[in-house]
Amino acid sequence: MTDTYLDRIGGLIRDARKHRGLTQTQLADQLGTSQSAVHRIEAGNQNLSLDMVNRIAEALDSQLISLGTAGPTHLRVDGGRKLSGSIAVRSSKNAAVACLCASLLNKGRTVLRGIARIEEVNRILEVLTSVGVEATWSDNKEDLTLVRPAELDLGAMNIEAARRTRSVIMFLGPLMHQYDTFQLPYPGGCDLGSRTIEPHLQVLRRFGLDVKSTGGFYDCDVDPGRGTLDRPIILTERGDTVTENALFAAARTAGTTVIRNASPNYMVQDVCFFLTELGVKIDGIGTTTLKVTGLSDIDVDVEYAPSEDPIEAMSLLTAAIVTESEVTVQRCPIEFLEIELSILDEMGLDFSLSEEYVSQNGVTRLVDITVRPSHLKAPADKIHPMPFPGLNIDNLPFFAVIAAAAEGKSVIHDWVYENRALHLLELNKIGANVTLLDPHRITVEGPTRWRGHEVVCPPALRPAVCILLGMLAARGTSILRDTYVINRGYEDLAARLNALGAKIDTFTD
After folding, report:
1. pLDDT over 90 for what percent of the chain?
2. Are the beta carbons of 389 and 342 closer than 8 angstroms?
3. Is the preceding omega at residue 389 within 30 degrees of 0, hence cis?
4. Which pTM value belongs to this model?
5. Which domains are present in the chain?
6. What distance in Å separates the CA atoms of residue 385 and residue 265, rounded to the nearest whole number?
């Protein structure tokens, strides 16, 4: 087996072991080997025979590591159970993939600490390693070291992996500093409707990048001489990835660039903190005006820990709310949850906050949030997202599940994406009363008597998780099929919910 396959199999074994609630020593005892051998296996540092793989699969009663099962994975949820205990929020998916893209700016060694091993990260890593970046996980799989070659082999790029993630669009900013011409595949990601990249191109044209679309690729031509940076760059869309691409372009441009109408959202702040570790000076972090003093060359050894994910925090809070459970969600980035909590307070949620403390990045403010069973009522006004510091667009779908557990009728207005409201109609299959008003608005009437049902995952991350959370509250057994999209944004979600008292089994056909 290659090192790559050993690493992947080791990760699957680790996840399956944790799902079974076993320590490495307990698994070693079942296999008749040592704890250190199990550690090496899970780290991808131990050659495995087919016999050993099958023995491990039998010991863990896990089809996840059975050979020849290339089909989709599904979740079986035995619902209606109360949750209890504490669960910590993991690091941000969106910050992780942005920092991975930003690492291309650095000729030195980049160490990212505590990033989640999720499919979105895996896809970007597949693209990075295909063009020559050396990526090495620590033995405990918590830290990732990246070393880029002097010259990237863009012709060897893993096109299939690139087209399975929208994040690859953030290669534009770093690559334009290193090549006069290059190609980038059209990005993929969630099915959330039409998503133009024109805002990216408007910004990057100011740095001299010209892009033409041909046959599934962006053909990129760079001439810094045609750039115009004598006046501030005004983003026509306050988008997160647009702001990040602007930051990447400015980071390797000598002199000072002013970016206005920038997103101050959580992943953008993490990118700013990371770039400052590289030596880039950025004034205005957390505001809509960023003043970036770039460097013509970046060659430093750097370590950075992206902050916790407010979207995962909202997911876990929702799990507690809809199951009417008392749960403490630890390490919540409170700055990016205050509007959500204000709405929940209006709806009648009983919750409390701990004293604040600081994330590993040394900046982001964290709290522990304890949620208790509550009688919820629909809010008087519609629930809608806004750019930060408003309600986060990725947190909006969770209010569909929460509204279904509340008394009365709620209106949810998703003005950003035209397909996501359609995906939330799938909640009706497990008992919710969701009505589509138009492609952007739904009404949700509760309270809901959730019931078990079989549902195929919609091709969008947050709506898929919403269905899973509704299934936690549903009487009987539910099946959620083809859950790859959930793995794009969450690591070990089923096992982590099981640790709180849920009963979710993973299986394949």
Report:
1. 69
2. no
3. yes
4. 0.83
5. 3-61 (1.10.260.40), 76-90+308-508 (3.65.10.10), 93-304 (3.65.10.10)
6. 13
